[in-house]
Write a structure and sequence with these properties.
The chain is α/β, with parallel strands linked by helices and 489 residues long. Helices cover 37% and strands 20% of the residues. It is globular, with a radius of gyration of 23 Å.
């Protein structure tokens, strides 16, 4: 084993109106636990309701007073660059904190940690390029098209990669001119605290950045408050629905990324070994706790058994181990409740007629380890909901038409995959399945182009992602100019 040395993990600290203090309340149930050992790490803390209200009030006041929204592009960009500079030095500590919260191997969280400063630099660069004011021809003189911040933004991030998600969303919200209220996930809040530390050190004007802690009650207080004008959330469908209901009362602007059970079509002409390698990589990213992981494999009937064998082989080669071992490729699941839920979901597929094939060996450790699994022989109509773990179902299909029909037989529409040696045919198939992003012959986490927009279709959410899309989401448009002088109506 090549264990990473662990120093003191960060504490959970609220940031409200420029002040730092530990949340007063503690959530019921088990606290934060080491995912490889089950040992207690910290209580799961929650910000008291009156303190959440104070944070919202501070964000609303700062927006109303214009201490952030009224800054010019150059000034806001400079602040973002300063935050990036503070994040340059926190990579190792942040990698350990994120790995301890999510179970994702530290070798992976180290890569994510190295990208956080880039999120703020990228937001600054995009802001300078996009600007906030455009001149257009008008009836009398040029009119102004302005992109103005909606107002206080609530940012709620998931527990699988919280710091990276927080950095990307917070950077774009700040670039847009919004004041920000960040809520880290209750199961993995530590990495976000290091991001918040870096933001605190640059001494933004009071009220521009807040962070509060807790579970659904804290989230509901943020997303249901009329002073919050925009909400960006990544997480479960159930929570997304609750947020949408609360936001509907005030017509709050929403961006919801809610996942889905993503299909992968494997044609008869696909390179089976290369396809199996790509599918194994996709289903094991973040230990399978990735919203765009392939979940339902639709393979040409003649290649079904070959693909199952090859996929088990590739999965079995991955080293499952302690999350802080630098040689680990697949770590434990994030927390016991998630492991138990995954067991229940797979057991339900077995009850529906599925057979489970496991791959790989779990270490002799008491944590939340889970060997990758393939489920075969189950009706594809029973494989609808996201599993969010290293599990895929594999189904034979008769032809391309059958594959497209099964791929589209879902209320979700986040990501899809097509594998084929004929790229033209694969591209044509990709256009026929209703998902925000369709990748051909690969399952990488990187967007196909840095400027692309991926919409969240169906129950996968509202809005989309992509840098320019997210920056635009946090703003509304306003047009100002001299009216037509002689129009009678």
């Amino acid at each position: 084993m090549a264990m990473v040395r662990v120093g003191r993990l960060p504490e959970q600290v609220d940031r409200i109106d420029g002040e730092l203090r530990q949340p007063r309340d503690v959530l019921d149930g088990e606290g934060l636990r080491d995912p490889s050992s089950g040992d207690h790490v910290q209580p799961r803390r929650a910000t008291a309701p009156d303190e959440v209200d104070r944070a919202i009030a501070a964000a609303a006041r700062a927006h109303r007073d214009g201490v952030w929204a009224d800054l010019d592009v150059a000034s806001r960009s400079e602040w973002l660059e300063r935050i990036a500079g503070e994040l340059d030095g926190v990579g190792d500590d942040l990698a350990v904190a994120e790995s301890t919260g999510s179970g994702v191997p530290v070798a992976v969280t180290r890569m994510f940690a190295g990208s956080l400063a880039g999120a703020f630099r990228g937001a600054a660069s995009l802001l300078r390029t996009a600007g906030v004011r455009t001149e257009l021809p008008g009836p009398v003189r040029p009119v102004e098209l302005l992109r103005l911040p909606w107002g206080p933004a609530a940012v709620l991030v998931p527990w699988n990669a919280p710091a990276a998600m927080a950095a990307g969303k917070v950077a774009m919200a700040l670039a847009a001119g919004c004041t920000v209220l960040l809520k880290p996930p209750e199961w993995s809040p530590l990495g976000c605290n290091l991001v918040a530390d870096a933001i605190h050190r640059v001494e933004l004007p009071a009220g521009v950045f807040q962070m509060v802690h807790g579970g659904p009650a804290t989230g509901a207080a943020l997303t249901g408050d009329p002073r919050v004008k925009v909400v960006s959330y990544t997480g479960s469908l159930a929570a997304g629905r609750a947020i949408a209901r609360a936001a509907a009362e005030h017509f709050t602007a929403l961006q919801l990324e809610l996942g889905g059970n993503n299909p992968a079509i494997v044609r008869a002409d696909a390179d089976i070994d290369a396809t199996a390698a790509a599918l194994a990589s996709g289903m094991l990213k973040l230990n399978g706790q990735w919203c765009e992981a392939p979940g339902k494999v639709l393979v040409a009937r003649a290649r079904h058994d070959d693909l199952v064998d090859a996929l088990r082989d590739h999965l079995g080669r991955r080293r499952i181990g302690h999350h802080l071992d630098d040689t680990t490729e697949v770590g434990p699941l994030s927390h016991a409740a998630h492991r138990d839920r995954l067991h229940q979901q797979v057991d339900a597929l077995v009850a529906d007629g599925g057979d489970v094939l496991t791959a790989g060996e779990v270490p002799d450790l008491p944590g939340w380890f889970w060997a990758p699994r393939l489920v075969v022989g189950v009706d594809p109509g029973r494989c609808v909901d996201e599993l969010f773990g290293p599990v895929v179902s594999v189904h034979p299909v008769d032809d391309d038409e059958h594959a497209v029909a099964l791929a589209n037989d879902t209320p979700y529409g986040l990501a899809g995959y097509v594998f084929s040696s004929d790229l033209d045919v694969a591209q044509a198939l990709g256009r026929r399945i209703r998902f925000g992003e369709v990748k051909i012959n690969g399952t990488s986490v990187i967007d196909l182009t840095p400027t692309s927009t991926q919409s969240f279709w169906g129950l996968s959410g509202i809005g989309g992602h992509g840098d320019a899309e997210v920056l635009r989401f946090f703003t509304g448009s306003q047009i100002v100019g001299v009216d037509h002088p002689d129009v009678p109506i």
